[in-house]
Amino acid sequence: MTYCVAIKLNAGLVFLSDSRTNAGVDQISTYSKMHTFGLDGARQFCLLTSGNLATAQGIVAQIRHDIDHGMPISLMTLSGMDEAADYIGQLSIMQQKKAGGGIDFEASVLFGGQILGGAPDVFLIYPQGNHIATSRTTPFLQIGESKYGKPILDRILKPDTALHTAVLCGLVSMDSTMRSNVTVGPPIEVLAYKTDSLCHAEPPRPRRRQRLPARIEAQLGRTPEGRVPFAAAAGVGHHVGPGGRRGARSTATLNPARSPHLRHAARTSWR
């Protein structure tokens, strides 16, 4: 299986992908799912793939063929990101039809980049050839095993998030997915693109993937004891507030000596 994520920020774009493919528990392989195209100073693109490997490789091969042979329509000739996403969608449909069509030959694509004179953008291109873009409230798109790594993205990412913060957030998202699903695995590919740079730039690679979980656990361990927000439930959908009144959420800390109503809340919650 696969997990890929693309993030759009004011500062630029971030792309992450795993490299594990499988056709059963005894057929595990490693293939890069990140592909880049571009012309420095004019346009830069990144493409992440999920789904049928043959279809994905066919899409990438056709993109390179059209560029290398100077075809009238290619990523080097299209004038806008939206047009480029439509072009890749049509290539996807073409590759699926060559294999006979059907759900077994479908592939999804995350595609992003920037063309000189336009703004950076990111798209999720469906197997049917149509696509969606990010929004200000959801500045990221995912393909593959998305559910495990989504919560950290929802919590942290905003359009004004710094590029390096988004890279770290994406790595945590990827690590959560790998720990919860064995069909997603290393090596992990990361690419960060700075707005208007029109050239690719990769952030420093983590020294060891194993260090990331340890650093997360260490950070959680620094939370001072007795400072965890507490709101005890007196019943389904109700919370105990000062004086034992239901309906008011308590955000007091775990210190019964300083919060008399907290003692009452604690007793109520254990009945």
Protein architecture, described:
With 271 residues, the protein is α+β, with helices and mostly antiparallel strands. It has helices at 53-68, 81-98, 150-156, 163-180, 211-221, 260-269; strands spanning 3-8, 12-17, 20-22, 28-30, 34-39, 43-51, 107-115, 121-125, 131-133, 140-144, 189-194, 233-235, 238-239. Helix 1 (53-68) packs across helix 2 (81-98) and helix 3 runs antiparallel to helix 4 (163-180). The protein is globular and about 60 Å long.
Q: What proportion strand? A: 15-25%
Largest sheet: 5 strands, antiparallel
Basic shape: globular
Rg computed from alpha carbons, rounded to a whole number of angstroms: 23 Å
Order of helices and strands: EEEEEEHHEEEEHHEHEEH
**Mean pLDDT across all residues, rounded?**
81
Distance between the termini: 45 Å
